[in-house]
UniProtKB/TrEMBL annotation, chain A:
Transmembrane segments: none annotated. GO terms for molecular function: ABC-type ferric iron transporter activity; ATP binding; ATP hydrolysis activity. PANTHER family: MALTODEXTRIN IMPORT ATP-BINDING PROTEIN MSMX (PTHR43875), OSMOPROTECTIVE COMPOUNDS UPTAKE ATP-BINDING PROTEIN GGTA (PTHR43875:SF1). It comes from the Bacteria. Residues 3-233 form the ABC transporter domain. GO terms for cellular component: ATP-binding cassette (ABC) transporter complex, substrate-binding subunit-containing. This is Carbohydrate ABC transporter ATP-binding protein, CUT1 family. Keywords: ATP-binding, Cell membrane, Membrane, Nucleotide-binding, Transport. SMART domains: AAA.
TrEMBL record, chain B:
The keyword Metal-binding does not apply. Keywords: Membrane, Transmembrane, Transmembrane helix, Transport. The lineage of its organism: Bacteria, Pseudomonadati, Pseudomonadota, Gammaproteobacteria, Oceanospirillales. The chain crosses the membrane at residues 12-36, 70-90, 102-123, 151-175, 196-218, 260-281. One of its GO terms (biological process) is transmembrane transport. CDD domains: TM_PBP2. It is found in: Cell membrane. It comes from the Bacteria. Pfam families: BPD_transp_1 (PF00528). It is a multi-pass membrane protein. This is Carbohydrate ABC transporter membrane protein 1, CUT1 family. Belongs to the binding-protein-dependent transport system permease family. InterPro entries: MetI-like (IPR000515), MetI-like_sf (IPR035906), Sugar_ABC_transporter (IPR052730). PROSITE patterns: ABC_TM1 (PS50928).
From TrEMBL, chain C:
PANTHER family: ABC TRANSPORTER ATP-BINDING PROTEIN, MALTODEXTRIN IMPORT ATP-BINDING PROTEIN MSMX. It comes from Modicisalibacter xianhensis. Residues 4-241 form the ABC transporter domain. PROSITE patterns: ABC_TRANSPORTER_2. This is Carbohydrate ABC transporter ATP-binding protein, CUT1 family.
Length: 362, 293, 365
């Protein structure tokens, strides 16, 4: 089962919710839709599901045009942000409900409900009503209902937002293993870059109804196509600095410049915006040609294992993600080391013109 | 494409379409037809154009009824809306008390209109009616068949009793949808009871109040059965409202042409007022949206 | 300005609580000092919201005292307690402008208008709301609304503490960063006691100087983010703080060697000695994924483990490893090459914790 969206557009009351989206989701793939509130994640999912019809464009499933086909004929299931279950039915009957509608035999229903419940760790609660369960268990029940019917597409619309941080962690891990054994297409909407990375698979970055980039999650993260994608897919936010390449130097101003190294040599002189991830700036030089930047501390946020340092000079602000715990006082001077080998360069239009090569990762 | 299969759904609304045609469109057209003709019998009729309309608009009796109608509708709205909000505010929000009060409040809504008239007719009688008797015992010469003020006051009281529960119910549901956090925040901000009402409850009630006011306006503008049963439109014509004038004309005098014209005028007034009201509210909301953009 | 103290405080929603399980808050003593930035961290249902409501006065505790600067305030309603609260879902007065929203708490107590103006302008400046003052509060974005709710607490001179109930729940991640910074800035500028309730350890630890971790109606640890991270005194704290949480291995002593299941662990002599003195059967070794050393070749004191899966999280990766019959997670930084197939692990003695019956036991060195 593959899903292809062709030049999809949806306009509601003069407002464009989805604008010219082309996307091809492969059978058995896990896909994350990453975007801020109102980026069009839910709108796009509704089009995939057949809950809405596009103003323009086509939806193809397995090569067949299903653009006008309503949701009940598409074998799609969906999990929402709110925990949506039938309040009057037990967990067992909730999970069994799609199978009963599909007139599956009793024995088969029983077998499948129990195996799904076991996989989602809700087998002890099968005889309870949803409202007697915790939020996490209610959402597991809703997921059970979505997964039990072997849908071609399973859509998750920010399903973990209303759950505790730690539960989210567990859920993500389980989701990955659940879908690794399935042939259906999973689509998962989230606002959190960290969640997209934790889920892996593929990521589509959405912004204002447009698709910015789609690809393997790590690829999109490490190799954003333009400045917007880089900004959408970074946490803490990526640092963006204006600078100029002039013949032999990269210049931020007359005090702050460094010789153009082999990474950036191919770029023609001109104005650029440079992107530096917060974790690539450090307190000690990590490479011989890191440049020293004197800055003033605004504030340090310390978690148990890491420090998020916010600092400025009269040219720019920098957010720095440091390993370990470091104490800083607001207003104190600090010397930061700026990695000349780990910077992204974007041209005036915002398209990426240089991606650092020494990225590490996988 | 596959879209065609959806078209079958159109057949499903056909029964509804027929029903609407028979219940609304065809009768209305009949009325339009009558309003521009003078009909003597099945075979003799003359086209009169706007004649009936002119006559109706210039009829002093109808003008008086129209004025009376507006006075009535505005008075009941002015009483029922604040009263309904007030009742909703003091209704218990949860527990068995909430259910009990809810049933009690809803009771008048369940009584048919002409029965309401009969109940009040008996209630206000000077000899056996509790209210009529009590007032007379207290020394007030209460008489709805002779005193127009008494008749008016009683009809308004009756309408308030009958319909305030509707506003109260709507407001009650509106109040229930306000999250607790709002009240908690207001307490922490040391807001007075009035400020809580003015800045939290009232804004959240606007939507239901729009529906409530519209419904009550249309309802009260068409009031017929209750005053007809209670006062018969009297004393004199002091409580004869539009619908009753119309009925008298159409049924009593068989003046089909003028009453058809009158019906249409009546209909258009209700439509116009409702439309003005509706657009005004919608514009207010649009302003808010524009500000957002 | 106030110090908030809880003395033998307990609360149950039942009228006749019997077992400890009937209590939403089990008996506790706790002090929040004037001017501190605190977090109350725990999973849903741990009692943290109950505790917050008791402090703000929305709920009266079943037993014990709530003391503001030593004065008992149990029976005082919220409006008399001089606290402000920011709720999970933004609460603003929709029909008022931002200015009127901020002025509201002052006008409610008949503050003179020129004083109101002065305070509102000061707070609007601190919260970067000055340009928004004339807008209707209804049309603000979620993060702006949260700033307005906080502003309504800050305008009052008499507010001794601001309580936050998961204030970033409905905020997009990129704005969370900004708002969190703003909170810290405000805390430093106004020197007001702040108590921040959340289930998110990152929010808690970046905001607070000290965190109270709650679990089943009790504060299981109260300490700085660093203490909670480096030396959690309960397995729950180890699990709950840190992402991913601490690794725990059930350990025992066999022929003088520390073993987990059948696998011998390379840990220091001190650990084995400590283990020898313990009678309980519930004994665990805890080590954070951040502190496991991962090598691609054998080094002194290392143990070989199979790599099940590696997950790239952008700025770092998590390795899922199998050591004997336990699964472990280890964090490796971006610049460190990821070994494949097998990895050689070392547990630095400094970062190993010994947990007996779920509580940490100090190892004598």
């Amino acid at each position: 089962m593959s899903l292809i969206l062709e030049n999809l557009e949806r306009v509601v009351g003069g407002e464009t919710h989805i604008e010219g989206i082309d996307l091809e989701l492969e059978p058995g793939s896990f896909n994350v839709l990453l975007g801020r509130t109102l980026a069009g994640k839910t709108s796009l999912m509704r089009l995939m599901a057949g809950l809405d019809t596009p103003t323009r464009g086509r939806v193809l499933m397995n090569g067949q045009d299903v653009t006008g086909v309503p949701v009940r004929k598409r074998n799609v299931s969906m999990v929402y942000q709110q925990f949506i279950n039938y309040p009057g039915l037990t967990v067992y009957d909730n999970i069994a409900s799609p199978l009963k509608l599909a007139k599956v035999s009793r024995g088969e229903i029983d077998r499948r409900v129990r195996s799904i419940a076991e996989m989602l760790h809700i087998d002890p609660f099968l005889n309870r009503l949803p409202l007697e369960l915790s939020g996490g268990q209610q959402q597991r029940t809703a997921m059970g209902r979505a997964l039990v019917k072997d849908a071609d597409i399973v859509l998750f619309d920010e399903p973990l937002v209303n759950l505790d941080y730690k539960l989210r962690e567990e859920f993500r891990e389980e989701l990955r293993s659940v879908f690794s054994e399935r042939r259906c297409i999973a689509v998962y909407a989230t606002t959190e870059p960290a969640e997209a990375l934790a889920l892996g698979g593929n990521t589509a970055v959405l912004h204002e109804g447009r698709l910015l980039q789609y690809g393997r999650t790590e690829d999109v993260y490490h190799r954003p196509r333009d400045i917007q994608t880089a900004e959408m897919f970074s946490e803490p936010p990526i640092n963006i600095l204006h600078g100029t390449i002039s013949g032999t130097e990269v210049t931020f101003d007359n005090r702050l410049h460094f010789p153009v190294n082999e990474d950036l040599r191919s770029l023609p002189p001109g104005d650029y915006r440079f992107g530096v991830r917060a974790s690539h700036i450090s307190l000690t030089p990590r490479a011989g040609d890191d440049i020293e930047v004197p800055m003033i501390v605004d504030m340090a946020e310390i978690s148990g294992s890491e420090t998020f340092l916010h600092a400025h000079n009269d040219l720019f602000h920098l957010s720095v993600h440091l390993g370990g715990v470091h104490g800083f006082n607001g207003g104190a001077p600090v010397t930061l080391y700026f990695p000349t080998h780990r910077i992204y360069a974007f041209d005036r239009q915002g398209a990426v013109v240089h991606i650092p090569t020494h990225l590490g990762g996988l | 494409m596959n879209k065609i299969q959806n078209n079958r759904a159109w057949w499903l609304i056909l029964p509804m379409l027929l029903l609407v045609a028979f219940s609304a469109i065809i009768p209305l057209m009949t009325v339009v037809n009558y309003s521009v003709q003078d009909v003597f019998d099945a075979n003799t009729r003359f086209f009169t154009g706007t004649e009936w309309f002119k006559e109706m608009l210039n009829d002093p009796a109808l003008q008086a009824a129209l004025l009376r109608q507006f006075a009535f509708s505005l008075t009941v709205l002015a009483i029922e809306v604040p009263l309904g909000i007030g009742i909703a505010l003091i209704m218990p929000k949860r527990g068995w008390q909430a259910s009990a009060v809810l049933i009690l409040v809803t009771m008048p809504l369940l009584i048919p209109w002409n029965v309401v008239g009969s109940i009040w007719q008996i209630f206000t009688r000077g000899d056996i009616g509790l209210m009529g008797w009590s007032l007379r015992e207290l020394g007030y010469g209460y008489n709805i068949t002779a005193n127009p003020v008494d008749a008016w006051a009683t009809i308004i009281l009756m309408d308030v009793w009958h319909w305030t529960p509707l506003i109260a119910l709507l407001c009650f549901s509106g109040l229930r949808s306000i999250p607790d956090a709002y009240y908690q925040a207001a307490r922490i901000d040391r807001a007075s009871r009035w400020a809580v009402f003015r800045y939290i409850q009232l804004p959240k009630l606007t939507n239901v109040l729009v529906i409530g006011v519209l419904l009550r306006f249309m309802h009260s503008f068409m009031i017929y059965a209750e005053p007809f049963v209670l006062t018969g439109g009297g004393p004199g014509s002091s409580t004869t409202f539009l619908s009753q004038s119309l009925t008298t004309m159409a049924i009593g005098q068989q003046d089909l042409g003028p009453s058809a014209a009158f019906s249409l005028i009546y209909f258009l007034i209700i439509l116009l007022v409702s439309w003005v009201f509706y657009t005004a509210i919608m514009n207010m909301q649009k302003d808010k949206k524009n500000e957002e953009a | 300005m106030a110090e908030i103290a809880l003395k033998s405080l307990a609360h149950s929603y039942l009228s006749n609580p019997e077992s400890p399980g009937d209590y939403a808050i089990r008996e506790m003593n706790h002090v929040w000092q004037q001017g501190g930035a605190y977090a109350l961290l725990g999973p849903s249902g741990c009692g943290k919201s109950t505790l917050l409501n008791i402090i703000s006065g929305l709920l009266e505790p079943s037993s014990g005292d709530v003391l503001f600067d030593g004065e008992r305030v149990n029976a005082l309603p919220p409006e008399l307690r001089n606290i402000a609260q920011v709720f999970q879902f933004p609460v603003v007065y929709d029909t008022m402008t931002v200015y009127d929203n901020l002025a509201f708490p002052l006008r409610n107590v008949k503050t003179p208008e020129d004083r109101v103006h002065e305070r509102v302008m000061e707070v609007a400046d601190a919260l970067e709301l000055t340009s928004q003052l004339k807008r209707k509060a209804k049309n603000l974005t979620a993060d702006e609304k949260q700033k307005v709710s906080m502003g309504r607490g800050l305008v009052r001179d008499d507010v001794s503490a601001i309580l936050f109930d998961e204030p970033l729940t409905v905020i997009d991640p990129h704005l969370k960063w900004k708002l969190r910074r703003k909170l810290k800035e405000i805390h430093q500028r106004f020197e007001i006691t702040m108590v921040y309730v959340t289930h998110d350890q990152l929010e808690a630890s970046t905001f607070a100087d000290k965190i109270a971790v709650m679990y089943e109606g009790q504060v299981v640890q109260f300490g700085t983010p660093r203490e909670l991270f480096e030396a959690p005194n309960h397995t729950f704290v180890g699990y709950f703080i840190g992402s991913p949480g601490m690794n725990f291995l059930e350990v025992s002593l066999r022929d003088g060697h520390v073993v987990s299941g059948t696998t011998e662990l390379a840990v220091g002599r001190e650990f084995a000695d400590a283990l020898g003195e313990i009678r309980s059967t519930n004994v665990k070794l805890g080590i954070r994924p951040e502190f496991i050393e991962v090598h691609d070749a054998h080094v002194e004191g290392s143990m070989v483990a199979d790599i099940i899966h590696a997950q790239d999280l952008g700025t770092y990766s998590i390795l899922y490893l199998r050591l004997g019959d336990t699964t472990l997670k280890a964090r490796i930084e971006e610049e460190q090459p990821t070994p494949s197939g097998k990895a050689y692990l070392r547990f630095p003695g400094k970062w190993i914790g010994l947990y007996v019956d779920e509580f940490r036991v100090e190892i004598a060195s």
